[in-house]
Amino acid sequence: MSKNNYIWLIYTALAIGSGIVCYHFFLQEKWINVILFSVLLLIFLLLANSSFSSQITKADRIIQSILKKDFSLFPKDDGSDLMKNSVQLYYHSKDEHLSFSSYKLLYESILDQLDIGLMILSDTEEEWKVFYVNPVFLEILDIPKYNSWKLYAAKIPDFYQIIEATHYESSQEFFDISIRQTTKQSFSLRTKQIRNVQHHFYIITLESVQKIIEQKEKLAWNNLMKVISHELLNTLTPVNSLIQNLEYISNQDVVDKEDQEEMKESLTIITSKSKQLLNFVDNYRQVAELPKPILNHVSLKKIVESAIDFLKKEFEKNHIEIVLDLEEHFVSADLKMIERSLINLYLNAIFAVSEKEKKIITTSIKSHKNRVILTLSDNGSGITHEIKDKIFLPFYTTRNGGSGIGLTLSKSIMEAHGGYLIYRALEEGSSFEMWFLK
């Protein structure tokens, strides 16, 4: 038992004793003694109350410190149960607070290092508050940091309206906005809603499409160099060996019939390998020297119909059902280049559905804000997760006899038109989206 508890008990016992004595003198009508011991009773009661209140005040100060997350105190246990529990609670809360602060600092440091813009909104009863925003997000949109989401309405009205249009639900889209009164830039926007019993968060990620393209291009060129090196080595290594062998035979004084036959075989192989290398170089030239599009006001619907008519016999031969949902939209494009890109996608789709009993290829044209999207989907075998990042890589193919430039060429054509070619995995099959500017 603590010292304060002993003092409180003593004062309480003295107060009880004084009360008993006071009552005794009251019965004897000794009024002076009654007054004296009444005063003593009052004094001991006040001292007992003061001693007890002191413990309550210390415990209350500790609890208030916990509630305010002020852990600058260093309370000590004085032996009483109240103080013992209060001190234990204080230090337990302090440890949890320090751990939480450490994790928060760690997570924020990680999020600050991201190369994409990130903002997290928290839904309060009154309005959306900015729970977290990283420097990249502020830099992309050239805005200061505010705690209230409403304050951004005046700073970035276009972007604010785009977020409002999502109704704070999960979404994914591309959009164009002007930053710092410059020309419009394209961005990839993803939003996700997270809700639990206590909190409601809205996560916004923002990434420059140009930056995405640059990163993909860098990776693609690195992979391309590997492919080219592999192709050249596979072709030139055996050719070099055969040439050395021919040089050895030609240096002999007498070339017998067997050596002559060997020379003929070697020359045949060299010719075949040379043609293979020439085809490889020609395919590379098609991708590397893509001509500048000759733009005209063209109907996407007519381009689709023309491509389908061109491949009509292939569709019929493979018993493929063609499903069309074509809105009439006009875009500024090179008709022949877009048709070539579309034919490449149809040829890939024909290969994808080849092993299906019921073969379906669906084509749709839809409008989305200031974009027109031509979507080609199939119910084929799909693209595995392992190779989905390689499908646009030049000369990468899973088809026997395929050149591996179809998707690369289609993607390059779309980028030359200021658009995008996007792959999406479906539950059954694949989908390619050609995004055009109106």
Note down, in words, how this protein is organized.
- The chain is α+β, with helices and mostly antiparallel strands.
- It folds into four domains: 3-101, no CATH class; 115-209, Beta-Lactamase, CATH 3.30.450.20; 213-289; 296-437, Heat Shock Protein 90 (2-Layer Sandwich), CATH 3.30.565.10.
- Helices cover 53% and strands 20% of the residues.
- The chain is built from twelve helices and twelve strands.
- The protein has helices at 3-27, 31-67, 81-112, 135-141, 152-155, 157-165, 209-250, 257-288, 300-310, 312-317, 335-352, 406-416, and strands spanning 117-123, 128-133, 171-178, 184-195, 200-208, 296-299, 320-326, 330-333, 359-368, 371-378, 420-425, 430-437.
- The strands form three sheets. A five-stranded antiparallel sheet has the order 2-1-5-4-3.
- A hairpin with a 2-residue loop joins strand 9 (359-368) and strand 10.
- Helix 2 (31-67) packs parallel to helix 3 (81-112), helix 9 crosses helix 11 (335-352) and helix 11 packs antiparallel against helix 12 (406-416).
- The longest helix has 42 residues, at 209-250.
- The protein is elongated and about 150 Å long.
- The mean pLDDT is 79.
- It holds the Pfam family HATPase_c.
- Its EC number is 2.7.13.3.
- This is histidine kinase.
- Keywords: ATP-binding, Kinase, Membrane, Nucleotide-binding, Transferase, Transmembrane, Transmembrane helix, Two-component regulatory system.
- The chain crosses the membrane at residues 6-27, 34-52.
